[in-house]
Write a structure and sequence with these properties.
Layout: H1 4-35, H2 43-83, H3 86-129
Length: 130
């Protein structure tokens, strides 16, 4: 399934294809007029010039829209990559581990208490055996 940007891109590409076909037709008509050897100041040539200019402007506008859509799509892709970048995830996990070290310190002190307790028990049994 295509998203909205992809649908717009397909539509603009189709429109661009139609404009290029129109450009080719204008070129063919111009060649026919050239072969008929008309006067360079003829009104028909001025009309063709205007048609070529309009076609060119429309093609430029379509290309701008396509470029804009592609840029926005690339920006979205970059955002996704930054959001789900594996290196960033590991950095976040490291930061989470760093914040958990305080808890680890508490746990280490608890282990020390258990170790002290075990030492006292060992000392108690040593006293009894002596």
């Amino acid at each position: 399934m295509m998203n909205l940007n992809q649908t717009k891109l397909v539509g603009l590409t189709m429109e661009l294809d139609l404009k290029t076909k129109e450009y080719k037709k204008l070129c063919d008509k111009l060649e026919q007029i050239k072969q008929s050897k008309i006067n360079p100041n003829d009104e028909r040539l001025l009309q063709f010039k205007q048609l070529f200019q309009e076609n060119h402007d429309e093609i430029v506008e379509i290309n701008k829209q396509i470029r804009k859509l592609k840029d926005t799509q690339e920006a979205i892709e970059r955002q996704k990559l930054e959001q789900y970048n594996a290196e960033e995830v590991f950095k976040r996990n490291n930061n989470a581990c760093l914040s958990k070290q305080e808890n680890i310190v508490v746990i280490e002190t608890e282990k020390n208490i258990f170790l002290k307790f075990i030492k006292r028990i060992k000392e108690f049994f040593r006293r009894d055996s002596n």
